[in-house]
Write a structure and sequence with these properties.
By secondary structure, the chain is of the alpha/beta class. It contains ten helices and ten strands. It binds glutathione. It holds the Pfam family Glutaredoxin.
């Protein structure tokens, strides 16, 4: 059995920070007084027996008493599931998709391991098209910034205290970061508060095209800022990645769309 009942945000952060970063965490938001939630609760409880706590933890969160976590994860409906690994939200689920998922969990213990390969599953962004790549924080410093511009999460490889030289560990981490979601941007500031005009323009372009995207505020982490210049072989920000491939900076994006107004639809098929 690998279920932990989460009592509040502090508890969640404590649990998350004590876990191995490779472990899958399934955050399950439910309402204790809701029949649908009860059915799903039972399904998860049964399924969880198949998983060891070394590989996966199911974190149960009663949404009726956890306003703070609901706001943080933008939960608008329960039951609601968020699958997290290594600081990234791999997937969110509600409704019949969630039911099917829980059912398949019980049938086949490989289900979650499949999701572990996040290239196969899109990250959902709830009510917004923008996802902070680091919505979960694993370290102990200020938590107030989680909803907006938090510093990097679990991965100490991206910690500024680490060797700022570009090394293979950093390369691996950046490689995961650029593939965190199909459209990923590295910008200055956040989409709601870009801190340079180029970043602002790129955000506007993505919004105009109704593109769901993930982002990383490079002003929050100098290792990532320096590392991405080398990783992309590109000296400035913003930088756009689509399907894990570097597209370019703002000017290239503008030119690309000028040439092919349907560019995003084509590549994101
Ligand atoms: N025209 C460029 C503008 C980008 C740019 O010049 N960005 C600068 C100023 S925001 C930058 O990122 N400099 C490197 C740095 O700040 O690390 C583009 O196509 O993206």
């Amino acid at each position: 059995m690998s279920i932990i009942q989460i009592s509040n945000r502090t508890h969640l952060e404590k649990v998350v920070s004590s876990e191995d970063k490779n472990k899958l965490l399934v955050l399950y938001f439910y309402a204790h007084d809701n029949q649908h939630s009860k059915t799903i609760n039972e399904g998860i409880q049964t399924a969880s027996l198949k998983y060891t706590k070394e590989t996966i933890n199911f974190l149960f969160i009663d949404s009726t008493i956890n306003d703070e976590l609901i706001t943080l994860f933008k939960v608008t409906v329960t039951p609601y599931l968020v699958i997290v690994r290594n600081g990234y939200i791999l997937r969110t689920m509600t409704g019949s998709e969630l039911e099917d998922f829980v059912f398949s969990l019980d049938e086949c213990s490989e289900t979650l391991l499949t999701i572990n390969n996040h290239h196969t599953t899109p990250v959902s962004a709830n009510n917004t098209n923008e996802i902070d790549a680091r919505q979960i924080k694993y370290r102990n410093d200020s938590v107030s910034s989680i909803e907006t511009d938090s510093t990097i999460g679990s991965d100490s490889l991206l910690d500024e205290e680490n060797d700022p030289e570009f090394n293979s560990d950093l390369n691996d981490s950046l490689s995961k970061l650029v593939q965190a979601v199909p459209v990923m941007i590295f910008l200055k500031g956040s989409p709601s508060e870009p801190r340079c005009r180029y970043s602002r323009q790129l955000v506007s372009i993505l919004r105009e095209n109704r593109i769901r995207f993930g982002y990383f505020d490079i002003l929050q982490n100098d290792v990532v800022r320096k590392g991405m210049k080398k990783f992309s072989d590109w000296p400035t920000f913003p930088q756009l990645y689509v399907n894990g491939e570097f597209v370019g900076g703002l000017d290239i994006v503008k030119d690309t769309i000028k040439e092919d107004p349907d560019y995003f639809n084509t590549v994101l098929l």
